[in-house]
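Help!! Second protein's tokens look totally different from the first
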Amino acid sequence: MVRMVDVAEKEDVKRRATAQGELKLKPSTLSTIKSGKAPKGDVLVAAEIAALQAIKKTWEVIPHCHPIPVTFARVNLNLTKESVTAIVEVEATYKTGVEMEALYGVSIALLTVWDMVKKFEKDKNGQYPSTKIEQIKLSLKVRGDEKNIKASKGT
């Protein structure tokens, strides 16, 4: 028998999670992203929007996740010399945490970047020998009152 965890009796609590990860790309691909000349459009903006959509739909793709009323989300994508890094923050006041939403947002952001620049990453055999998503992890989880949440934001 498969069933979701019953959270009906749990108290609504303010929750926050931050996740991060990176997509290793060729320097020439990173230059293309930075220049804004990728054929499919603005790579970073598309990935940020995709991450926001993913955050709100996490429960639809991860079977045991509850639909959570997300109250705040932020997606930051940055270019380094070797990669695109993604940091996703999610908040909600609910009976269960938002870790999966943050992790899923990072994953979808990085997959969107890969999809938009894959033509530049392929070798002559159509493979991606140097392209890889790495270091996806939960970097912060906060459960509690507004004071704890603000402290985690650095405000």
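Here's the second one for comparison:
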Amino acid sequence: MPSAPIARLRKKDIVWLARHYCKHRHTYLVHYNCYLTENPLGRKVGFFDIEASHLKANFGLLLCYCIKPADKGKILHRTVTQAELRDRQCLDREVVKQCIADLQTFDSIVTHYGKRFDIPFLRSRALFHKLDFPAYGEIFHEDTYFMCRSRLCISSNRLETACQHVLGKSNKTRIDPGRWIIALQGDEKALAYILDHCKRDVRDLEGLYNALVGFTAHTESSI
């Protein structure tokens, strides 16, 4: 059971946690995991995914991102533009900058394999562009890939496979390498397809997370 991160909390939040009780009749300060699950203070949680032109950030660019607020239909997103791609001083700088700004409106994010790809890729692009990136402990992070790996026994821990097994379906579209290649030229149809692919991913991600969260303890790690 994770303990409350007192060093990162404001005094009034510590007092609130000490005076309010979870379903087990313990204070949230003692049962901090219950606080995370029951979310009484309205922590803002977002389901996050990126699409990039390459698996390594020193060879690729951020093409788009999506963040779906929990239990809400509207998805925050931005796609790189043709004009930005043609400007060597810009490239994906603006989409990285906006992505970071949108992330900072959330207390916690959920990804699928984001600990190994989405977050390190975004951080790498931010450092390349000399942009400020959230410091350690600023935004919390959970990853459904590791939930699948530790709590399920299926042939693959990929998002699509996990959703098909747990939810009975997946809304993911096919990854067409040709579209990702011409997207680097600023092709609007290719970029629209990739954005739609990313939106479907975060919707699937939210469904998978909600199905698995009851089987695992919240592990408070930083992006």
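Reply: Different proteins will give different token patterns, so don't panic. The chain is about 40% helix and 15% strand.
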